[in-house]
Specification:
Shape: globular
Distance between the termini: 40 Å
CATH class: Alpha Beta
Number of helices: 3
CATH architecture: 2-Layer Sandwich
Structural class: alpha+beta
Number of strands: 4
Strand order of the largest sheet: 1-2-4-3
Radius of gyration: 13 Å
Largest sheet: 4 strands, antiparallel
Strand content: 15-25%
Number of domains: 1
Length: 96
């Protein structure tokens, strides 16, 4: 898998609002109503990532989840990172 060029990443980010390219990684901060919703997002995201065999770097405090995506083996952002960003950006229904 080859890393994408910065122009390719910029073009892809035009279709991924809220995502940015920082320090060689895709990045987004998600904010939820509360910890329960943040944890539900991470649980759903973990299942998606595992199915894709691609795992995010992420950090959670209360209602905030910060996500960074990069393909370490390729040495940069790849199509796989973009696919996971798209999947994580899909709306989800939260149990109440």
């Amino acid at each position: 898998m080859e890393p994408l060029s910065e122009p390719q990443i910029a073009a892809a980010l035009a279709e991924l609002p809220m995502w940015s390219y920082e320090n060689g990684k895709l990045h987004r901060t998600f904010r939820f109503r509360d910890f329960r919703d943040a944890f539900a997002f991470m649980s759903r995201g973990a299942l998606i990532a595992e199915a894709m065999h691609h795992h995010p770097e992420w950090f959670n405090v209360y209602h905030t989840v910060k996500v960074w995506l990069v393909t370490h083996d390729a040495g940069g952002v790849t199509e796989q990172d973009l696919a996971l960003a798209r999947a994580l950006s899909e709306p989800m229904s939260l149990p109440r």
